[in-house]
Design a protein that fits this description.
- This protein is mainly β and 186 residues long.
- The protein is 3% helix and 23% strand.
- The protein has one helix and eight strands; from the N terminus they run αββββββββ.
- It has a six-stranded mixed beta sheet with strand order 2-1-3-8-5-6, with no helix packed on it. It has a two-stranded antiparallel sheet with strand order 4-7.
- The chain starts with a helix and ends with a strand.
């Protein structure tokens, strides 16, 4: 192993200030940093030159195999409004949906979750009949994010995509956020 490590170019690495990392005298472990920095200079390593082009501070990935993304303008935050089904997901318009409103409540200090201030063991069951169209409006009244999952059904996650709302089985609800989902019980 020492032979392989001896072949590594470790110019620019300086671990002398780290407790227990004095490796002076060990063959192949000379890790002297340059005079301006304690950081490793990866630009001298094959394939590690990450300097952007002269017009940008961004790394130019167009020269990397498989990384050409053209002029893609990536958002700063991904959110559920960006999800879109490739086909319409609207439910049977002849069925009138039953709306169930639930407040996600809980205690952050004790990390206890509840619906409408009732823990799962104390809450009433929500009965759903086969063939029924159900719409859940979930409001997270806590300051905690929480993943939600509906067992046995994919549901329409109502978002900005309208009739192309995505089908999901799990979603994350942010603090103080309200989410609407709907499905046909089949």
């Amino acid at each position: 192993m020492m032979r392989e490590m001896g072949d590594m170019n470790m110019n620019g690495m300086n671990m002398n200030s780290m407790k227990g990392m004095k490796m002076n005298g060990m063959k192949g472990m000379e890790m002297k940093g340059d005079s301006n920095s304690n950081k490793m200079d990866m630009n001298k390593m094959d394939g590690m030159n990450m300097k952007g082009d002269s017009n940008s501070n961004k790394m130019n990935m167009n020269k990397m195999d498989g990384m050409d993304m053209g002029q893609m303008d990536l958002p700063s935050e991904f959110n559920y409004d960006m999800l879109r089904s490739i086909t319409p997901t609207t439910l049977d318009s002849n069925l009138i949906p039953r709306e169930v409103k639930l407040k996600l409540t809980g205690n952050m200090l004790r990390y206890i979750w509840s619906f409408d201030d009732k823990t799962l063991s104390n809450s009433d069951k929500i009965l759903i009949r086969k063939g029924e169209k159900v719409r859940f409006v979930l409001q997270n009244t806590t300051m905690m994010r929480h993943p939600m999952h509906l067992h046995g059904h994919y549901f329409r996650f109502i978002n900005a995509q309208g009739e192309y709302a995505p089908l999901k089985h799990t979603f994350d609800i942010k603090p103080m956020e309200t989410i609407t989902i709907e499905f046909e019980a089949n």
